[in-house]
Amino acid sequence: LKGIFQAVYTAGVVLPKPVGTCRYWHRSLNPRKLIEVKFSHLSRNMTMQRTMKLYRLPESPKTSGLRPMTRKDVPAVHRLLLEYLSQFHLAPVMSPEEVEHWLLPQESIIDTYLVVSSGGKVTDFLSFYTLPSTIMNHPVHRSLKAAYSFYNVHTTTTLLDLMSDALILAKSKGFDVFNALDLMENKTFLEKLKFGIGDGNLQYYLYNWKCPSMGSEKVGLVLQ
């Protein structure tokens, strides 16, 4: 359409009328720091030591063939992503150039890891982006490093195993917390991987597009 602007956006406030409502969930990676800066708190009858043990993760991922994405992987990742997103009602249709822009790893911006079969075929991938926050008036901690789940595609690895590895990788890279929305298939792993539900909703809106309302599991577009 020429001269007609269209948009998709999100907000915490409810306006007329959201096409979808998602909720953030949070998974502690560095529980001591999160409690010290009051991002989270000790649960009743829980000590710091027991909390640290509860959220402890393995040292290394368990999925074999896991490696960072490179530029030559763009065509394979593009194919996987388009096929996977076709099952959702609200999803982007990315070009190979957009896949490269959004998913090719950049230090302190975006991390993408692929699962590659013994025959060299890319079968799955996980991704998360970085969003640090400044901590004000704390004697020790200056910033909070948060990882946000982005696009995750599974064909041979279970989503649960893929996201378990995402947590391990994020922890090894110094992230304090891993955040994820309850969209796409994310509800299948959130509680199992010890995510805690957040206290606010993220409303999805369309401008100059007609679209019926949908459940969060039908939303295939990740926005902040």
Structure description:
- With 224 residues, the chain is α+β, with helices and mostly antiparallel strands.
- It has one domain (25-198): Aminopeptidase, CATH 3.40.630.
- It is 21% helix and 27% strand.
- It is built from five helices and eight strands, in the order ββααβααβββαββ.
- The protein has helices at residues 31-36, 48-54, 74-85, 96-103, 159-172; strands at residues 7-11, 20-28, 66-68, 110-116, 122-134, 143-149, 177-181, 196-207.
- Strands 1-8-2-7-6-5-4-3 form an eight-stranded mixed β-sheet, with helices on both faces.
- A hairpin with a 5-residue loop joins β4 and β5 (122-134).
- α3 packs across α4.
- The protein is globular.
- It starts with 6 loop residues before the first strand and ends in a 17-residue tail after the last strand.
- The relative contact order is 0.27.
- The mean pLDDT is 97.
- Belongs to the NMT family.
- GO terms for molecular function: glycylpeptide N-tetradecanoyltransferase activity.
- It is a peripheral membrane protein.
- Keywords: Acyltransferase, Phosphoprotein, Transferase.
- Pfam families: NMT_C.
